[in-house]
Amino acid sequence: PSECRVCLVFSHNLSYPHRRHQRPLAPSSPHCRHRAQPAASRFWMLGCALESREAVFAALSFSAASGSLLIINKLCIHAIPAPSFIATIQFAVCTLFCLFLRTSGLAAVDGFEREKVRPYLAYTGMFVCTIYCNMKALQNSNVETLIVFRACCPIVVSLLDYLFLGRELPSARSFASLLLLVAGATSYVLTDAQWKLSGFRAYGWVGAYFCILSVEMAYGKHIVGPHLGFTSPWGPTLYSNSLSLLPMAAIGLAASEAETVRTSQLSTGSVALLALSCVVGVAISFTGWYCRSLVTATCYTVLGVANKMVTVL
């Protein structure tokens, strides 16, 4: 490669320069156009610092939104037992908010383009299935079970990261840490009351959530890359939510959730919870794509596990 970190540090996707076969060169490299500039090294170090601060800010923002939404969704489902209906409302609110930002000019939001829509259609299918399985898992099991299965995802994502995204395999220490997560998850499953009563049947929805989410995490990193040319994370936010509206609504109709919502007694508290879930849904969608563009798929997945500590607390 002919570009150095000075050239790449302010790009929209800061994790792509770390590919296994495309590592950025130091400013002193003979192939770098900054080699004759005395301040190149200082700019390089400043860029690294800014990159780290931006990634930390994105990670903390995403963690706060993700950790709180799980509990809010659990409360929403308890008040309104219609997972697809809740998710559809959240998608609709986020889509309308993105369109408002686009029309008002308050943020740079990409419009719909054919070359960008195509890769997001596949992601939308996985995204909708993940959300629905997540909702059904919360409806049929407890939050702790969902967290435990989510904790095992980084093992699979790290392999997908290596095979398809050009990342290196985890080091021995990192891999040992991932195995420790799996050991803890296994211990929980073996002592869980639902496992003793129902066996694998108790983990049907959670297992589906685990498999689909692992692939989604790796593919999501790919479609937020610079090759699609998004101007800001609001573009992927609009695409993922708007394209998910009809599939999620169709799942709800097939599951007869319209009748469930019609017969439910919606109180002021349940409506307030639904509104709060929509606000946090916008936050997690934007911060999720923002964070995903700055870190690797494995790091993003581990972060998704770690932020559930907020949920436990």
Describe this structure as you would to a colleague.
The chain is mainly alpha-helical and about 325 residues long. Helix content is about 75%, strand content about 0%.
What tags apply to this protein structure?
313 residues; mainly alpha; 73% helix; globular
Helices and strands in order, then pairings?
Layout: H1 5-8, H2 40-79, H3 83-104, H4 114-140, H5 143-151, H6 153-164, H7 172-191, H8 193-198, H9 204-223, H10 234-254, H11 257-263, H12 268-292, H13 297-306, H14 308-312
Helix pairs in contact: 2-12, 2-13, 3-10, 3-12, 4-9, 4-10, 5-7, 5-9, 6-9, 6-13, 9-13, 10-12
Poorly predicted residue ranges? 1-50
Number of strands: 0
Could you spell the SSE succession in H and E letters? HHHHHHHHHHHHHH
Please compute the radius of gyration using only Cα atoms. Answer: 21 Å
Distance between the termini: 46 Å
Q: With helices defined by DSSP (H or I, 4 residues minimum), what is the helix count?
A: 14
Describe the main β-sheet briefly.
none
Task: Specify the overall morphology.
Answer: globular
Outline of the structure:
The protein has helices at 5-8, 40-79, 83-104, 114-140, 143-151, 153-164, 172-191, 193-198, 204-223, 234-254, 257-263, 268-292, 297-306, 308-312. It has 313 residues and is mainly α. Mean pLDDT is 77; it is low at 1-50.
